[in-house]
């Protein structure tokens, strides 16, 4: 999607114009009122989880690979000039997409530790080196210092540091202005889509990864998929047309908890769906247990499936499950050697 490319450029610019690319509550309150899709990666929570601390070697390898990529693209030197360590200073990334307008528009919130003065110096230096590939100029929006960033052949993005812990990028001055007002408390956050408001109740600051979207937005994005005409894509599109809204989350702590949320028309319907879902899960558990008797490598799957449970939270049906650390170790042992 174009939005992924453009927002990726904007996010990078916030750290040092690298195109030459509670925390959760704060990010949520400054999102546009017409937001219909939001994805949050709680990097700080992930890196501090017991699961990752117990797999330090794997984490170190991942960090080394990411650092290598940053250096190869000459991003590392700008991050250093901005006094920014991705693994220590970046706490979370939230990407939102508004409904009712171009789905390639978007809104990013980065949270962490930002040195505005050093970042500005790094951005302007990177801008000079980028030449005609990226145009950058300082602007003032809602009495806030910002950058107007225009990558070659891309739409302009507006980037700014609201305080030492919050940075934003968006596609319009209007969104930037409203975000500043919500950040300062002079304007309240009220999401227009009722289904989105309902699904937001399933998200919290402890989640490592979360995704929330209205059915309308999911359909819109699916229709723009270049493969939308094939049979498989048509089947997926047909299923999405039956979904009013969807949420998903993964929480990495001592174990890995996961959940899937579907919005129903009311609380009573959600309760009915939960009953049907639990009955269906019983059948799945029995089938998987039977298969595990014939294949011992299926045992970790049995452990996971047995944790699955459906429940209603207001008008939302939630299906929750867990992967324990012991089960995760079994799964990793069953993977083929590279």
Q: How would you describe this structure to a colleague?
A:
- The chain has a twelve-stranded antiparallel β-sheet, with helices on both faces.
- It is 46% helix and 25% strand.
- It has a domain at 2-199.
- The chain starts with a helix and ends with a helix.
- The chain is built from 15 helices and twelve strands.
- It is globular.
- Biggest sheet statistics: 12 strands, antiparallel
Radius of gyration based on Cα positions: 22 Å
By DSSP, the count of extended strands is 12
Strand order of the largest sheet: 4-5-6-7-3-2-1-8-9-10-12-11
N-end to C-end Cα span? 32 Å
Short description:
The chain has 338 residues and is of the alpha+beta class.
Entry keywords:
338 residues, alpha+beta, twelve-stranded antiparallel sheet, 15 helices, 12 strands, 25% strand, globular
Please specify the SSE layout and strand pairing.
Elements: H1 2-16, H2 23-29, E1 35-41, H3 43-47, H4 50-53, H5 56-72, H6 76-81, H7 86-89, E2 90-98, E3 107-112, H8 116-130, E4 134-141, E5 144-151, E6 157-163, E7 166-170, H9 173-184, H10 194-200, E8 209-214, H11 215-223, H12 231-240, E9 245-252, E10 256-263, H13 267-294, H14 299-305, E11 309-313, E12 316-323, H15 325-334
Antiparallel strand pairs: 1-2, 1-8, 2-3, 3-7, 4-5, 5-6, 6-7, 8-9, 9-10, 10-12, 11-12
Helix pairs in contact: 1-8, 11-12, 13-14, 14-15
């Amino acid at each position: 999607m174009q939005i992924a490319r453009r927002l990726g450029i904007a996010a990078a610019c916030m750290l040092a114009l690298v195109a030459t690319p509670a925390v959760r509550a704060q990010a949520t309150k400054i999102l546009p009122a017409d937001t219909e899709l939001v994805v949050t990666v709680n990097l700080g929570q992930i890196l501090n989880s017991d699961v990752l601390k117990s797999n330090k070697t794997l984490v170190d390898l991942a960090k080394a690979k990411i650092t290598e990529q940053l250096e190869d693209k000459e991003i590392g030197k700008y991050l250093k000039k901005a006094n920014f360590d991705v693994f220590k200073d970046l706490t979370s990334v939230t990407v939102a997409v508004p409904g009712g307008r171009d789905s390639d528009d978007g809104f990013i919130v980065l949270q962490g530790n930002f040195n505005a003065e050093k970042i500005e110096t790094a951005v302007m230096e990177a801008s000079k080196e980028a030449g005609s590939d990226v145009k950058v100029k300082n602007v003032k929006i809602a009495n806030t210092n910002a950058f107007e960033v225009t990558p070659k052949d891309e739409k302009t993005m507006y980037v700014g540091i609201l305080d030492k812990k919050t940075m934003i990028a968006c596609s319009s001055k209007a969104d930037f202005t409203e975000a500043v007002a919500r950040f300062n408390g002079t304007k309240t956050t009220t999401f227009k889509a009722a289904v989105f408001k309902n699904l937001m109740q399933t998200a919290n600051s402890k989640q490592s990864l979360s995704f929330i979207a209205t059915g309308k937005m999911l359909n819109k994005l699916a229709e723009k998929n270049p493969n939308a005409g094939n049979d498989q894509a048509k089947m997926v599109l047909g299923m999405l047309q039956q979904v009013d809204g969807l949420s998903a989350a993964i929480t990495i702590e001592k174990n890995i908890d996961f959940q899937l949320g579907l919005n129903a028309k009311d609380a009573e319907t959600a309760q009915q769906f939960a009953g049907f879902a639990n009955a269906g899960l019983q059948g799945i558990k029995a089938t998987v247990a039977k298969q595990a008797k014939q294949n011992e490598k299926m045992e970790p799957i049995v452990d996971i499936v047995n944790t699955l449970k459906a429940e209603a939270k207001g008008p939302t049906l939630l299906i929750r499950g867990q992967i324990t650390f012991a089960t995760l170790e079994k799964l990793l042992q069953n993977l083929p050697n590279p």
